[in-house]
Amino acid sequence: MSDQVPAGEEMSRWQPGVGREGAVARLLSLDSRGELTTDHARLVAEALGVSLRTVWSWLSVARREGRLSARTPARTGVSADVRARLAVWGGNVAAVHRELVAEAAKAGVADSVPSLRALQRAMRQDLSAGERAGLKGGEAARRRYDVYGKRPRTHRNACWEGDHKRIPVRVDVEGSAVCPWVTWFIDVATKAIVGVAVTPHQPARDAVLAALRTGISRTEPYGPFGGLPGVVRVDRGKEFLCRTVERALGAFAVPVHDLPAYKPYRKGTGEALNDALEEMFLVSLPGYTRRARPVGAHHPDRVEDLMSYPEFVEALLRWVRGWNTGHHPEGLAKGMTPLAAWEADPSPVEDVAEERLAFFALEDDGRVRKITTNGISWRRRAYIAPWMAGHVGMRVRLRYLPHYDGRIEVFSTEEWGRHLGTAYLAQAATMEQRRALSSVREKKARQLKADLKAAEKLRKTRYTATTTAAVPRPRRTVTSSQAEAEISRARGADLAARALPDLIPPREPPASWARPVVRPRRAADSRTDAGQAADGKPAGAAGVRDDSGEC
To answer: At how many degrees (to 10) do helices 129-137 and 80-88 cross?
Structure first.
């Protein structure tokens, strides 16, 4: 018989000694009935990959000690105290061992501490790789060793995932370099980006509503993707969970599922899109803030060399179209783009009429206003439009885009609110005025920042560096006269301390105010008070018990 093992069978062979408990239990059973033979022991030896002598030794140990498996050597375990020390030292086993040795030596039981190798071996055996990484790097490091399942495949529009992303690219916005934000929604089944909105600053609920508006609509230039989703998954961002977004999606019976915070893997499709955007597109743009630079070259690009905001938005939307029509994301059938996967999906798409989406993202303050000769007053400003001519005195209601007051939509007060038209701000500031105002505000902000830094420097007491365990000494020594002078100046500038409440006497109260009734004093009370005053006691102290208990 050939000793060669076919390919693939060698890997499936048991390791020597594996299955000892079951084999020894079977041999003991045969031995108790008087049926045990050498052939039985030889079969076990061949099956477990050990010698015949080893099998007889196992059987002898089982008869003598009643033990079916190998003896488990005594080893050091990781107790709760050791785990706490590991967390304090960031997973540094050597530091924990030094601390334990020092404490044991101080207590006079130095031999009670295991060796460093034993403690390291116990940590590898009792703690998983994820737990060791978490003790060293926190929850984010531990999470890299977790196993995550995948949600089952669904059809198009079954679920959307929404997210914000701060673009690490500086762009020119009216002469200032800023990093814009993108808010978008992606279809989980087809990996198609259905809605996008870009803002030069951190987005609010208006960006979420604008992205949803472009995602639901299927008209040009937003189609063919869109329609009503079955559910929208977002993280716990306040912009996604605000009342306005819930009301807008609730009007179409679309639920919003808020996922637990700090668990990006719960919406992996959106997070993968954020990473792909940076790797495939942003790294090549001027003003990219995470680009590798030579040592010492930390100067950012000049504003003149950056992309303008409209150019960046146009390039981003062009990349989104390329993602939907030319990219092959993972998770789709081989060679399929999001557009091909969308068109190949037979699931019906539930469209929304454009007239119902026209005011999808607008809010209503619930007040009824009147058209006057100055237009419509909203937030103490006038809004006018050509269609208002001849409608002075009409009662209307307003709807507006969140965080934008350049224009408003006017509706009638009828039951269904007929749309009358759009009104615009009557006196909007020019571009030069807005830039001058921004410059003044920035100057005030810089001055306030400098004042706060100076005050913080005066408030904090700084000390000299020490090389020994001694009490630190202040860097600056203040004399008593300097301290008194600064305290006096502070008191002089304190308006509350300078207030003089008795400087201006109070006025006589009006005659309409109710006044307290003053009762006339009786003659007996007057005589009593006078007698007590003559005896040297204060008037009005009659009837008060003294320390002796007598009245």
So the answer is: 40
